[in-house]
Design goal:
Elements: E1 2-7, E2 17-23, E3 30-31, E4 36-42, E5 45-50, E6 55-61, E7 67-69, E8 73-79, H1 87-102, E9 111-112, H2 124-133, H3 151-163, H4 182-197, E10 200-208, H5 210-221, H6 232-243, E11 252-255, E12 260-263, E13 269-275, E14 278-280, E15 283-284, H7 292-308, E16 321-324, E17 344-358, E18 361-375, H8 381-396
Parallel strand pairs: 13-16, 16-17
Antiparallel strand pairs: 1-8, 2-4, 2-7, 3-6, 4-5, 6-8, 6-9, 10-18, 11-12, 13-14, 13-15, 17-18
């Protein structure tokens, strides 16, 4: 018998570490090749790690919620043959290389014993949701193939638990502690980084979208079967694309460590999307090369992929400016947080009908506030206001969006 050490592989794009969010094996398990070992998350993308070998698990390293550096040992196996020999020399060499990348001595991970004797079958997204809701997958009946637990199974289980709650008039003093891990911790870290490092300048403007809504309704009523339904965000994307050449600093990333502003010719629009696992930002790439229908189709595709957990890593990275919308819950105004390292975020609020005086007459118009935030280090208040005023002009006169 030999020993095999499964290490966290280089996931790419400069990622130095990943967070462990679920274990699928325990010490003593005999594992087949390609069998799932654990799930890790980084930059809001979850990766399912599978075994490259067949063997018996002798040790696991890292608790759920712990962060493991690239190259660190996660699982130790006993395997047939010679395994990885000489293990000590290779391990020492890789540890030195990893510490050099990290710039500090990394503490050794503490071996643990996993507690999922017969882990149910479920996708990484479903496992994350169960963790955030405090649901044990062993208590959920799966309706998928071979008993696989689906998102709707979690919803049904959660509803049954809630409906079984009794009100007996007694006060409740219990305190539930939930460890923030996985995607939710990634969101918390990025939000904190954004507010800590970016001096936000927020600006809200009222926009009359009566004509735009009439145009949108007409286009949707006459669209073909292969055309996706147009939303307000599709028009906002096209309007932003039209304005970017005159406001290049707004479609940019700012590296405050190096003091470098990267202005992008391509417009990669991030779409802030609420999912069962928290806020994600899938990306509509090259909006500048898409027509209104293509924007709507791609927006629907990437948003749905984020919600059902099928979004690829490259679909969640690389946005140059972000749109965020609360839909019918949009309220009057908001102060959206910039998606670091971008320098701008735009958020439409809900549309309401209001009485408006036009000359000597009183009429009803559809009004929507547009909320926005800018990195005040890069975008001056005057330029931010001018950008939003130009955006207002395009939305109030939607024919201008389509003119060259």
């Amino acid at each position: 018998m030999g020993q095999y050490l499964f290490r966290l592989p280089d996931i790419g794009e400069g990622v130095a570490e990943a967070e462990i969010v679920a274990w699928h094996v325990k010490v003593g398990d005999h594992i087949k090749e390609d069998q799932p070992l654990l799930d890790v998350v980084t930059d809001k993308a979850t990766v399912d790690m599978s075994s490259p070998v067949e063997g018996t698990v002798t040790a696991l390293h890292g608790d759920v919620g712990a962060k493991a550096p690239v190259g660190s040992v996660l699982v130790e196996f006993d395997v047939a043959g010679q395994g990885q020999q000489p293990v000590a020399a290779r391990e020492a060499k890789q540890d030195v290389a990893q510490n050099a990348r990290a710039g500090e001595d990394a503490p050794a991970a503490k071996p643990i014993v996993a507690h999922n004797d017969n882990p149910p079958t479920a996708s990484p997204a479903t496992r994350r949701q169960a963790t955030e809701w405090g649901i044990k997958l062993e208590e959920v009946k799966g309706s998928g193939p071979r008993g696989r637990i689906l998102p709707e199974d979690l919803e049904r289980h959660r509803a049954r638990v809630k409906s079984g709650a009794k009100t007996d008039g007694k006060t409740r003093d219990e305190i539930e502690e939930i460890k923030v891990i996985g995607v939710r911790r990634q969101i918390a870290d990025r939000m904190s980084q954004s507010k800590r490092q970016i001096p936000h300048f927020s600006y809200v403007e009222e926009v009359d979208v009566t004509e735009l809504e009439n145009l949108r309704a007409d286009l949707n009523a006459n669209r073909t079967d292969d055309q996706s339904k147009l939303t307000m965000l599709a028009f906002l994307m096209r309007a932003i694309v039209k304005l970017i050449p005159d406001f290049p600093n707004i479609n940019a990333h700012y590296n405050d460590t190096d003091g470098v502003l990267k202005r992008y010719a391509a417009v990669h629009v991030g779409i802030a999307t609420q999912t069962p696992n928290g806020l994600m930002v899938p990306v509509v790439r090259h909006a500048e090369s898409r027509d209104i229908w293509d924007c709507a189709r791609e927006l629907l595709r990437v948003s749905q992929a984020a919600r059902d957990g099928s979004a690829r890593r490259d679909e969640l990275l690389g946005s140059t400016i972000t749109l965020t919308s609360l839909g019918p819950l949009g309220g009057i105004a908001a102060t959206p947080i910039i998606n670091y390292p971008e320098v701008a975020i735009i958020g439409p609020n809900k549309i309401v009908e209001r009485p408006v005086i036009e000359g000597a007459f009183l009429t009803r118009r559809k009004i929507m506030n547009v909320s926005s935030s800018f990195d005040h280090r890069i975008v001056d208040g005057h330029d931010a206001a001018r950008f939003i005023q130009q955006l207002k002009r395009l939305l109030e006169h939607p024919a201008l969006i389509f003119l060259d």
